[in-house]
Amino acid sequence: MKNLFIIMCLLASVGIQAQTIKGRVMEETEDGEVALPGANVYWVGTSKGSVSDANGEFKIKWEKVGKLVVSFIGYRSDTIEVKSTDKFVTCTLRSGEQLDEVSVAARKQSTVMSTQGPLIEQLITGEELCKAACCNLGESFETNASVDVSYADAVTGAKQIQLLGLTGKYVQMMTENMPNFRGLASLYGLTYIPGPWMSAISVSKGTGSVINGYESMAGQISVDYKKPRDPELLSANVFTSSEGMYEFNSNFSIKFSDKWSTMFLLHGDWMKEAHDGNKDGFVDMPEKTQYNVMNRWAYKDDTWYLQFGGKFIDEERNGGQTSHDGHAMIDEKYGLYKIGIDTRRYEAFLKLGYLMPQYENTSMAILVNYSDHTQDSYYGPKMYNAGQKSLFVNYIYQSIFGTNPSQMYSAGLSFNYDKYDEDFRDPVFNYGEDISTDFINMKREERVPGAFFQYTGEFLDQRFIVMAGLRYDYHNIFGSIWTPRAHIMYKPDEFTSIKATFGRGLRTPNILAENSYLLASAANFYVNGELLGKNPALLDDLKMEDSWNFGANVNRKFELFGRTLNINLDYYHTKFNDQVVVDNETAYNKVNFYNLDGKSYSNCYQVEVKYELIPRLEATLAYRYNDVKTTINGDLKRTPLTSRYKGLVNLSYFTNLKKWQFDFTTQFNGSGRLPEQGGIADEYRVASRFDDFQIMNAQVTKYFRLWSIYAGCENIGDFTQKNPIVNSHHPWSDTFDSSKVWGPLHGRKFYIGLRFALDRKE
């Protein structure tokens, strides 16, 4: 630690002493001024510049020239005078150019790649979310090349994220930079955030910052909710689809004074029709009802910033066999095979920040997030009832070394608490074995206090930035945890950024909570080859999952025919030292969990290109290749149900004055391996791999002054996975399996919706 301190002091001593100017770029619209992300800001006659972030904010080193140029393709540039004593400046650009009395609307960036800091981060704005139906977080990535979302099984409606070719449990899910949707909420948490509630989604690849904990292994996804101080006073969204789904969302804010404000957010969705499009006797999507309510408060003055609030979710899912139209074969002894999942979740959060006026560039904050989640569920003869209480507390102190704003540090303390109470019934059914079917109870408490330190240094006129962090946590079950992470960015010019990231991530496996969808099959759960239903103490034998991640990113912008061509290149390598392998292929009637004995890794390569082909027509093209392998039962194999590649083409066009908008997306999904089925009879054996397939989606939006109407079609080609359930006509047999899902389960879907938004008048 002494050597580390000396290094930090040396870095601070060579930092640039120049004054940092901060500012914001705004766009002038009919309804007022709004933030303009992605605007170029540079000093007249130099190549020293910056780019505004998702909030329109930027920072730049003071130069004696004293004149800043602010520009954006399709907007009128502006030049502002800046003094060395200025700390914050604002510039407003017009959202179109006047040409012969004809107004030409300009296109804003709806997805912004961060070039301000060393983290490899992409921000999905609210405008991008409106390109598709986006009923919830799980449907927010249809136009995103980095994140995949797919169904985990064919009957429960559970969805899983994939990032860098790895499943969602290796992605740290956060709401406003606070870890959330862990454990019991990991499978269905993507549906707990309605799309209209979100103002933006931040997707970062790699291990992320040590400030947010040690659990990020493949990346972080953080959702920003709409805030009480936002310009939006009232909004509403009504949605319905050809599948019989109905949804209503609304939020409204009240501003009591310049300091106090509050917002209420309401949501309800209903899916009451049973569909069996593939005629296998099971409903393709479960019937579902969800009610979701949130209230948040905000206070802000010159030195204090406070946010607090609460959220409540009530959800019921019912699926399984259906007797409609006589598709299901009803067992004479046991009847229909049914599935039910009832969930209640309470959340509360607090964020308190203090800007210390007596110390320049110094602040402190405390973040608190609490959740209480209960889930009662049954899957045919199997039952899983569980509760989880979680508490996350994070204290952050941020300051600079000496008087140099280019040399910053963050230090703090954290505490994470999880209490699990799980009742599990996993009968060995119809196998001819005499094994008790009684409930077993599993209780576990995790207490993890931690401390962290993170250094951020800017050199060479902010063209070279280093972020290095280290955190120490003590887990009451697994002992000491050290998590080092580093991020580097170099900007040779204002159009190019090169980033690299390296770090460690760890997480506690929750095999029941994270894999409960596998209960919708005949296979029983085993740990290290022994039946879990007879000995719950087997869970104590599993180690923490441990991985190292290395990543690199190159972002380059070119001016081509008066418009910006943006090229983004990625490479990431994730290596597991310890991993809990989910082996459901060595034996067809067993799901065996055990720690890795061999190699497991992921290599992910991606290229993404954005360009405005003609005025107001933006194209995004992307290609990603996944090389993901795991040692299963002694053999290194490609991870099952993972496509080798993914391609994406997204076209977005709006007419002059943005009266109409047209969006079209095609996803190209590559082939992959299916799990083997050791010992199963040939008549029930599925193929060893699945083929390439494509999914096309389209949406048309008509804008009016205060409201808009949108209509679209998902899965235009009506492609579905054939026979997604193994032996669906005999679900009470030992060969029934609904987990081998690799493609869409429902066919062509039409939808229509109405949005209304009213901004407050200051």
Automatic annotation (TrEMBL):
UniProt-listed InterPro entries: Beta-barrel_TonB, Beta-barrel_TonB_sf, CarboxyPept-like_regulatory, Plug_dom_sf, TonB-dep_rcpt-like
Subcellular location: Cell outer membrane
Keyword hit for Ribosomal protein: no
Start and end residues of each TonB-dependent receptor-like beta-barrel domain: 291-716
Entry keyword set: Cell outer membrane, Membrane, Receptor, Signal, TonB box, Transmembrane, Transmembrane beta strand, Transport
Principal location listed in the UniProt entry: membrane
Membrane topology: Multi-pass membrane protein
Molecular function via GO: siderophore uptake transmembrane transporter activity
Alphabetical list of Pfam families matching this protein: CarbopepD_reg_2, TonB_dep_Rec_b-barrel
Recorded GO CC terms: cell outer membrane
Biological process annotations from GO: siderophore transmembrane transport
Keyword Plastid among UniProt keywords: no
Spans traversing the lipid bilayer: none
Annotated signal peptide: 1-18
PANTHER family, sorted: HEMOGLOBIN AND HEMOGLOBIN-HAPTOGLOBIN-BINDING PROTEIN 1-RELATED (PTHR30069:SF29), TONB-DEPENDENT OUTER MEMBRANE RECEPTOR (PTHR30069)
Name recorded for this polypeptide: TonB-dependent receptor
Organism this protein belongs to: Butyricimonas faecalis
